[in-house]
């Protein structure tokens, strides 16, 4: 089922297969944000003084969608902010170990390395294969690296470079039994997966709304299990550290007000949930299934064109999929100067195809990652496959 692309403001001349990077906001959601901004600017003081109540109401609707409780969820600007808030709140000491996999998003890994170096802790890296990854391999490899010194496990729910869903429902309880909490970078998960955060039980979970929920940029959330909330503080300490508001916890007070910001992205989330969920007769379950089926079909188009097997089971995919490309024949060639793109990605961009090519785990290895959203069609993947084969042939030439 195809939803009219004109509901989004995307350039009609561009084959857009990179929803996973920054998302894309429908016109109706942008109009809702514009309405909120106009209300804010008509009476800024009144709007900001009533912001706490409005944020709590919006958080309540989002929490219901995520299978969580509103008192455990706060809005943040993006998942990277959420990861940093947790990591920089940890009271680490020399000798502590922090666990991460080779599939971790680079920004989150940078934050992990920073806090480890500052505290004298060590980062233990679990090497997971790709192609050839299975859920069983993930669980076995991670648990094998846990020691009595392991404090925290940082993991993408849906990995950014490889696009696979990690088996958190098995990992989180097994790690808690060993005394290890999990920080989940769920940047891609909201709207892609049927999240039930309370049942999942992670100590910390942060996710973006601007990707698969198609909300405005700057809308994301941090969910912290109730028993861990007193130890987590935002990166910016502001009035919430001392203000009194009897019905709200210090966790909510601190994160809901970190200084003046544009709250309209977060306040647009409830509208976006209703709008996107109303585009297909089956609601959000139908949206998730549509995008999964489409990205699996799109991946098969690329696999057939390249003549290679599937790098992971389709059951490990949501709305993203990565496919290995032949090794870069010019691994020392400079990246495109402006966007820092590998040459083949820049070539596809010039052809009007927006799709990321990732040097993972490092050059000359590389992956091409496709996305699926309601505006995507199978013809988009066929156009990519044809252009990709021509560019690979040009490389060989």
From the N-terminal CA to the C-terminal CA, the straight-line distance is 40 Å
Largest sheet, in brief, is: 7 strands, mixed
Relative helix content: 40-55%
Report the C-alpha radius of gyration, rounded. Answer: 21 Å
- The helix-and-strand class reads alpha/beta
Count of individual helical segments: 15
**Overall average residue pLDDT:** 96
> Which geometry do the CA atoms define?
globular
Could you outline the blueprint of secondary structure elements for this entry?
Elements lengths: L14 E2 L2 H4 L4 H16 L1 H6 L1 H16 L6 E4 L2 H9 L9 E5 L4 H14 L2 E5 L8 H10 L5 E7 L11 H10 L3 E5 L11 H4 L3 E5 L11 E5 L25 H7 L7 H4 L1 H9 L5 H24 L13 E5 L18 H8 L2 E2 L2 E2 L8 E5 L6 H19 L1
Parallel strand pairs: 1-10, 3-4, 3-5, 5-6, 6-7
Antiparallel strand pairs: 2-8, 7-8, 9-12, 11-12
Helix pairs in contact: 5-6, 13-15
Please provide a written account of the structure.
Strands 2-8-7-6-5-3-4 form a 7-stranded mixed β-sheet, with helices on both faces. A 3-stranded antiparallel β-sheet has the order 9-12-11, with helices on one face. Strands 1-10 form a two-stranded parallel sheet. It is 40% helix and 13% strand. It is globular. It has 15 helices and 12 strands. The protein is an alpha/beta fold. The two termini are 40 Å apart.
Summary, kept brief:
The protein is α/β, with parallel strands linked by helices and 397 residues long. 40% of the residues lie in helices and 13% in strands.
Features:
397 residues, 13% strand, 3-stranded antiparallel β-sheet, 12 strands, alpha/beta, 7-stranded mixed β-sheet
